[in-house]
From TrEMBL:
The organism's taxonomic lineage, starting at the top: Bacteria, Pseudomonadati, Verrucomicrobiota, Opitutia, Puniceicoccales
Source organism: Coraliomargarita algicola
EC number(s) recorded for this UniProt protein: 1.1.1.49
InterPro entries documented for this protein: G6P_DH, G6P_DH_AS, G6P_DH_C, G6P_DH_NAD-bd, NAD(P)-bd_dom_sf
Catalytically driven reaction(s): D-glucose 6-phosphate + NADP(+) = 6-phospho-D-glucono-1,5-lactone + NADPH + H(+)
Gene that this polypeptide is encoded by: zwf
Positions contributing to NADP(+) binding: 65, 174
Alphabetic keyword roster: Carbohydrate metabolism, Glucose metabolism, NADP, Oxidoreductase
Name of this protein: Glucose-6-phosphate 1-dehydrogenase
């Protein structure tokens, strides 16, 4: 909590962040009635409160097309935390956020709705008696990114307190454009409204603990880094598999597919973190620069039907745990003429000194046999000199498996002798 906030005037602030100097903040979530807000965003805000990392004066405004009363929105978020938070609901902590939470309805292309939102935030600042940092989180379909950004500019909210520590921020979820041309156009719109330090293009996959731990595993353990190259590694396999189908998200999913929904963002982030060189520091720009170098070194994909680098497929009807499930074409909201894939796999070649000749196999899909996100580093097999005769020597390649979800951790597969008088080998 900032030292100049009167605790007697705001007794509910007691116990919130005191050590980080976080400024008073109002967060506006566009698309607040959507799935991402309920499953990820609001539970994350609650957990920041549990960790004492929210600013002492914090307001949350949900924005969406659907009219919802303030109390109804609060109840929806209560239920979201109860169902999706990694920690049980702490009513005392949540109440501090809840009482400063409201809902604002309007169209994303309606300037009047943004003008009234600006008035609402201005009134919050007036009641508080000081300026607030404004954070706009865009959690909507990509088709309305541009009108939201343009209206944030025309309403004056994008420029609020600019060139100060309280300058407005905008957070943009993936997918960032549909292709290179649309991504460039979206950047043009953003840079016409916000200055670059105000903009956060994010991939929420990077918030996972195991993903953040990947740099630590690589660069703080001397037993790994000397082996992390083409001399010792045979291949790298990165899998992001989901056991569920598209469910009620068919209308959205059919516009993206596995390639746009998972491969070009989440999976490529894992490729970059696995293959990058050590950054000069842990600041965001240094890490980004090393990621960019790796991505630039990826060679163009061969798209031949036979012998190409890409496979696309989709799930059909069948049984899951003994129960019948629909195929993708029969799911709700899927057009009859859809050719969207639900599974995609690629073979990447990184043409640099460290990785030349080491294939990176990446894959992602829905309705897979099990839910799993993992990075498997397969090392080269030892020379078959001592343990090569017959089938009693089951010498396998050593593998390091970094599990991201659902079970986090690192597993190393090694060869070991089976107990007994005879020398027999197994891997475990």
């Amino acid at each position: 909590m900032s030292p100049d906030i009167d605790e007697a005037r705001h007794p509910f602030l007691k116990g919130l962040s005191k050590h980080r100097g976080a400024p008073p903040t109002v967060v506006v979530i566009f698309g607040a009635s959507g799935d991402l807000t309920a499953r990820k965003l609001v539970p994350a805000i609650f957990n920041l409160g549990v960790d004492n990392l929210l600013p002492g004066e914090f307001h949350l405004i949900g924005f969406g097309r659907k009219p919802i009363a303030d109390e109804d929105f609060r109840v929806m978020m209560d239920e979201a935390i109860a169902e999706h938070s990694r920690r049980p609901l702490n009513k005392e902590i949540w109440e501090r956020v809840r009482q400063n939470m409201s809902y604002h309805s309007g169209g994303y292309d309606e300037s009047a709705a943004f003008d009234s939102l600006a008035e609402k935030i201005n009134q919050i600042e007036k009641d508080l008696g000081r300026d607030m940092q404004r954070m706009f989180y865009i959690s909507t379909p990509p088709s309305v990114f541009e009108p939201i950004i343009e209206n944030l500019g025309s309403s004056g909210m994008a420029q609020a307190h600019v060139h100060t520590k309280l300058a407005s921020k905008v957070v943009i979820e993936k997918p960032f454009g549909r292709d290179l041309e649309s991504a460039r156009e979206l950047n043009k719109v953003i840079n016409g409204v916000f200055e670059e330090p105000q903009v956060y293009r994010i991939d929420h996959y990077l918030g996972k603990e195991t993903v953040q731990d990947l740099l630590v595993q690589r660069f703080s353990n001397s037993i790994f880094e000397p082996l992390w190259n083409r001399e010792y590694i045979d291949c790298v396999q990165i899998t992001v598999a989901e056991s569920l189908g598209v469910g009620s998200r068919g209308g959205y999913y059919d516009t993206s597919g596995a390639l746009r929904d998972m491969i070009q963002n989440h999976t490529m982030q894992l490729v970059a973190l696995t293959a990058m060189e050590p950054p000069v520091s842990l600041d965001p720009e240094s890490i980004r620069d090393e990621k960019v170098k790796v991505i630039k070194a990826i060679q163009p994909l061969k798209l031949d039907v036979d012998g190409g680098d890409v496979v696309r497929a989709r799930y059909t009807n069948g049984l899951v745990k003994g129960e019948p499930v629909k195929g993708y074409a029969e799911e709700q909201g899927i057009p009859e003429d859809s050719s969207t894939e639900t599974y995609a796999a690629m073979r990447l070649a990184i043409n640099n000194w460290r990785w030349q000749g080491v294939p990176f196999y990446i894959r992602s899909g829905k309705r897979m046999a099990r839910r799993a996100s993992e990075i498997a580093i397969q090392f080269k097999r030892p020379p078959g000199i001592l343990f090569s005769e017959g089938d009693k020597f089951n010498v396998a390649a050593n593998t390091m498996v970094i599990s991201i979800q659902p079970d986090e951790g690192v597993t190393i597969v090694m060869n070991s002798k089976i107990p007994g008088l005879e020398t027999r080998v197994r891997n475990l």
